[in-house]
């Protein structure tokens, strides 16, 4: 589906898709997270939601891999993520099934709702504090709903990030676990999508190539860190994302 969608599009659409990926990379390079939150609404202006989710699956893996491996002790970190991963697996199965069976207009409505919810949750950043006895059930729960959002809109991260912060993770420890979770969940997402008859290995290859403009954007974003206050930039982006979600809802209901 993905390679067919891009093959039959005009050169201007392909250029717009590449620019969308670069802009999403700029966000990740500037604040370290949020690539699919920007990429999905931009891509949905030019290609369908299903193709957009497939296109973002491999860039999610590769753009987070360096941070996931940084500092070593990756195996131990993976074990700490097990409650979340156990919840994510069935969540992804459900999310991908919903995505692939949706009508295009319904997909836009759901993606719009997801964007608005994720934008508000990330913008408000609720501060929770978990007791150790609640880590396992809470991790599975947040992982499940993170997996659903990952399958429907390539956004497995925001809900799980709240859980990781509630565990008390900060700084490099948070970045490592968050990045490792995105690598695992996005890798599973790519496998589930390419295993479906609507996509194939060539679509996976196209998704891998889509990592290049995102890496370029990340390079630009990293050099913008000293010129723009990250929190200000993040808030402006999230407000734009909420507006983009509302626009997707409008197209879904009235197109």
Task: Report on the architecture of this protein.
This protein has one domain (2-254). Helix 2 (11-31) crosses helix 12 (211-224) and helix 8 (135-153) packs antiparallel against helix 9. 48% of the residues are buried. It is 81% helix and 0% strand. The radius of gyration is 17 Å and the shape is globular. The model has no long low-confidence stretch (mean pLDDT 87). With 255 residues, the chain is mainly α. The two termini are 22 Å apart. The protein contains 13 helices and no strands.
Individual helix count: 13
Low-pLDDT segments, ≥5 res: none
Helix content: over 70%
In total, the number of domains comes to 1
Order of helices and strands: HHHHHHHHHHHHH
Number of strands: 0
Query: What is the makeup of the main sheet?
Result: none
Mean pLDDT: 87
Query: Class by helix and strand content?
Result: mainly alpha
Sheet-strand content, in percent, reads: under 5%
Gross geometry:
globular
Measured distance between first and last alpha carbons? 22 Å
Oligomer state of the chains in this structure: single chain
C-alpha Rg, in Å? 17 Å
């Amino acid at each position: 589906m993905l390679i067919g969608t891009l093959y039959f599009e005009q050169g201007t659409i392909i250029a717009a898709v590449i620019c969308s990926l670069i802009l999403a990379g700029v966000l990740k390079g500037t604040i370290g997270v949020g690539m699919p939150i920007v990429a999905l609404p931009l891509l949905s202006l030019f290609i369908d939601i299903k193709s957009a989710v497939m296109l973002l699956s491999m860039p999610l893996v590769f753009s987070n891999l360096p941070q996931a491996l940084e500092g070593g002790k990756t195996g131990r970190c993976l074990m700490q993520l097990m409650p979340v991963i156990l919840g994510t697996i069935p969540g992804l199965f459900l999310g991908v099934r919903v995505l692939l069976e949706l009508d295009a207009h319904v997909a836009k409505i759901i993606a719009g709702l997801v964007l608005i919810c994720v934008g508000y949750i990330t913008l408000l950043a609720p501060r929770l504090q978990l007791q150790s006895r609640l880590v396992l059930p809470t991790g599975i729960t947040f992982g499940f709903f993170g997996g659903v959002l990952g399958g429907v809109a390539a956004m497995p991260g925001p809900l799980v990030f709240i859980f990781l912060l509630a565990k008390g993770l900060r700084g490099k420890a948070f970045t490592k676990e968050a990045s490792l979770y995105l690598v695992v969940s996005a890798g599973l997402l790519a496998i589930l999508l390419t295993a479906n008859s609507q996509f194939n290995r060539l679509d996976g290859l196209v998704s891998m190539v889509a990592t290049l403009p995102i890496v370029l954007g990340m390079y630009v974003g990293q050099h913008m860190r000293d010129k723009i206050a990250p929190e200000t930039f993040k808030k402006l982006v999230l407000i734009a994302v909420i507006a983009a979600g509302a626009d997707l809802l409008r197209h879904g209901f009235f197109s």
